[in-house]
Each structure stands twice: as structure tokens, then as C-alpha cells.
Write a structure and sequence with these properties.
Blueprint lengths: L1 H6 L3 H11 L5 H17 L3 H14 L4 H14 L2 H13 L4 H13 L6 E12 L10 E2 L6 E2 L9 E15 L4 E13 L7 E14 L2 E14 L2 E17 L3 E14 L7 E13 L4 E12 L8 E14 L2 E14 L11 E13 L7 E14 L6 E12 L2
Antiparallel strand pairs: 1-4, 1-16, 2-3, 4-5, 5-6, 6-7, 7-8, 8-9, 9-10, 10-11, 11-12, 12-13, 13-14, 14-15, 15-16
Helix pairs in contact: 2-3, 3-4, 4-5, 5-6
């Protein structure tokens, strides 16, 4: 009946029928109705609603590869290229017929963010026992002897409002080249504005497709305020290379360079060079992981502020019905070139981080679902003012697909 309505051009009646069948006791009938409903919505470019229906299919039938491939197509149309590629890797990890696998490879090779412009928005609450990542000690050892720290220089607890977002424009020059521009902001706001932390950034560049590789080049400024006062101004350049490793994995190599000016301390002015290597792999249609290695060199007018650091991080995720659970862990090491005049020791640190979070798609409001995560940080430092431990949480909303 729904098919006859579609043939007759009566999509409204077809959608009504599909919506009713989506509550059928049979999971196969429910999922088939959702899939056909999503295809109708795609024709009218109702991408969010289509993505939600396809995601609901995968929550009940994670091996429904046609739905996963269709979701990848919808995500690409919405401009979420990275998420689209992740769904393709998950589909290939779950197994595809040879003829379908060839079509997927062709789609992956030609995949660009199809939407010429778009954006994202995030909103959440972030409680923490140490919002300023400060020491809990009331005193600091120095070459002048123990110094008393002011109250605001010690660890402060608080509840922050996390507001962030970005917008982008992408203009294709050819099938292999596109020009891009982005604006973004991230703000963590507290009742005591002294600890507010806001960053604003923009960049422009190009995306190149060379064979199976994707190269992104960009340059642009960033501006950071801390406590509502100017903190840093930087000019940033980035070169990012992505390449598939077989059907299930992808390698990502990113090089960054920034020239940073500190508005509160000219002795920290300098350059930042960074390299990050990441490998992401889908183990099955429902789980995967990403391993990252990074190194960074920071120069400064005062060698006490010049740093070298590096480390590793791991992200793993698992889909459990309508819930996606993920865990993170990381460790990094940092050393300064010299001792700052006031302190007794050269700065040497080990920073460990761990986190656990989940997205609950059982709750959906206009395409968004709640995200809850908890995290822990511990920084062991030879300089007391940099030593801290921190527990935090985030209660936010994120895309339900």
C-alpha cells in the first residue's frame, strides 16, 4: 500500500503507513519500514530525520549493512565526512558481498562533505573539583623559601557552562580540490568570571584528494581570553593527511605550527611545533578504537617556558543497543629547557588522564541525545604550582546519530 502511494506521488500517505509499521512487533517489519521511510525523507533532503531512522535500525540490527551504508550517505550529505567514513569502515568490518564492497570503495574514494556549508553546536554542564587545574597546596617552594598562595591560585571547584560551535563553507573547485573556511568557538563559563576560558578561531585553506589520500591545508588566527581578559593571540597553520589502511582502518598524520603571543607575559612568546599520528580501526560493526601518538616543541623568550612534550592516547567505543559507551586513556611527559628563576627545580612532569562516557539514544529531542562523561587527570610535577589532580564530568547534548 505504501509503495502504491509512492508510485502515485502521495508521499504523505506513504510516510503515515511507514510510521505505523515502525511500531510493529516484528523487528524485521519495523526496520524495513524505517529504511523505506528514511529513503522518502532523503528525497526531500530531510537529512536529520532520515539519519535518526537509520540509526534506530542499527540499534536493533547492528549487522543491517544496507542501513549503515545509507547512513554514511546521509552523513556525507549533511557535511559530516569523518562520521560517514567511520560508518563505511564499520560496514566493511561487518562483512559485505564482493559487489557491494567494490561500490563502497568507490564511494569512499569519492567522498567529500557534500554540503557546501554547515555547522555544529554543543551545550553542556561541566562540574569539577578543580576548574583551574591548580595545586591544592596553600604554599609553594621557591628560591626565596615557602610562599603563600592566594586563594584563587589554589584549586577551585565549580559548575561550568560549556558552549561551543563551528561553522564552515566548502567550495568545490574540481572533483579533487575544494576551498574551505571555518569559524569556531569554545567557551567554559563559571559564576566567578575570573575562571572563564574562551577561545575563538578561524581558518581558510584547501582540501586535496590524491588517490585514496585526503590532504587538508589551512591557516588562520586564534584568540583566547581567560577571566574575560586577553590571554593569547596566535597564527596557526595545519597540514593533515588521511589515508585508508585496508578496509577497516585509517591513518591520520597532522602537522601544526603556531606563532603565539602572550598578552600577560612576553617571556612566554614563541613558536609551537606539533606532530600527531593516529590510527583508527573498526573491529566490528559495533566497536572500534583509535590510538594516537603526539610530540610537541614550544619555544619561548625565557628558556624556562620552553618545553618539549610527547605522549600517547587511546579511545575505544562499543555500541550496546541504543547506547554508545566509550573510554579514553592517555599519558604524556613534559620537560622545560631550564629552571625558572623563582622555582627551585626545572619543570618535569607526567600527566595521566582517563575518561568514561556514554551517549543515550533512548532519549531524543529534535535529533539530539544526552551525553554523560566523567574524567580524571593527575599531573605530577617537580614544580609545585603545576602539580594537580582533577575530577570532572560533562552532561551535554550531542547528535543522536
Amino acid at each position: 500500500m505504501a509503495e502504491r502511494a509512492l508510485v502515485a506521488g502521495d508521499s504523505k500517505t506513504a510516510i503515515t503507513i511507514f510510521s505505523a509499521l515502525e511500531h510493529d512487533p516484528s523487528v524485521d517489519i519495523r526496520c524495513e519500514a524505517r529504511f523505506r521511510h528514511a529513503q522518502v525523507l532523503e528525497r526531500s533532503k530531510s537529512w536529520t530525520q532520515a539519519a535518526l531512522l537509520l540509526r534506530a535500525i542499527l540499534d536493533e540490527k547492528p549487522m543491517a549493512q544496507p542501513a549503515r551504508l545509507e547512513l554514511a550517505k546521509v552523513l556525507a550529505a549533511m557535511g559530516h565526512e569523518g562520521e560517514a567514513r567511520r560508518q563505511l569502515r564499520a560496514a566493511q568490518a561487518g562483512g559485505l558481498p564482493p559487489q557491494v564492497a567494490r561500490a563502497v570503495n568507490q564511494f569512499a574514494a569519492a567522498l567529500h562533505a557534500a554540503k557546501p556549508f554547515g555547522g555544529s553546536f554543543e551545550l553542556g554542564l561541566s562540574p569539577s573539583n578543580n576548574i583551574n587545574r591548580a595545586t591544592s597546596s596553600p604554599t609553594l617552594n621557591s628560591v626565596l623559601g615557602p610562599l603563600d598562595l592566594s586563594h584563587d591560585a589554589q584549586a577551585q571547584s565549580g559548575l561550568g557552562l560549556n558552549i561551543g560551535g563551528q561553522g564552515y563553507v566548502q567550495v568545490p573547485v574540481s572533483t579533487k580540490v575544494a576551498l574551505t573556511a571555518r569559524l569556531s568557538t569554545q567557551n567554559l563559563l563559571y559564576r566567578d568570571s575570573e575562571f572563564n576560558d574562551s577561545t575563538f578561531a578561524g581558518d581558510a585553506g584547501t582540501v586535496l584528494i590524491l588517490g585514496k589520500s585526503r590532504i587538508r591545508l589551512s591557516v588562520g588566527p586564534s584568540y583566547r581570553l581567560y577571566g574575560a581578559h586577553p590571554y593569547t593571540i596566535a597564527i596557526n597553520t595545519t597540514a593533515d593527511w588521511q589515508h585508508p589502511l585496508g578496509k577497516r582502518a585509517q591513518i591520520d598524520l597532522e602537522s601544526d605550527f603556531s606563532k603565539v603571543t602572550y598578552k600577560t607575559n612576553a617571556l612566554q612568546d614563541g613558536d609551537v611545533f606539533g606532530e600527531t599520528l593516529s590510527i583508527e580501526r573498526a573491529f566490528s560493526a559495533r566497536n572500534g578504537a583509535r590510538l594516537s601518538l603526539f610530540g610537541q616543541r614550544t619555544t619561548a623568550a625565557d628558556p624556562g617556558y620552553a618545553l618539549i612534550n610527547g605522549g600517547t592516547g587511546l579511545l575505544a567505543w562499543q555500541e550496546l543497543g541504543k547506547t554508545t559507551v566509550y573510554a579514553t586513556a592517555g599519558i604524556s611527559h613534559l620537560e622545560s629547557d631550564a629552571r625558572l628563576f623563582l622555582y627551585t627545580d626545572r619543570r618535569i612532569e607526567w600527566l595521566t588522564r582517563a575518561g568514561l562516557g556514554a551517549t543515550f539514544r533512548q532519549i531524543q529531542i529534535k535529533g539530539f541525545s544526552p551525553l554523560v562523561r566523567i574524567n580524571y587527570e593527575h599531573n605530577a610535577s617537580t614544580v609545585g604550582i603545576y602539580a594537580y589532580h582533577r575530577f570532572g564530568a560533562d552532561i551535554a547534548i550531542t547528535r543522536a546519530f
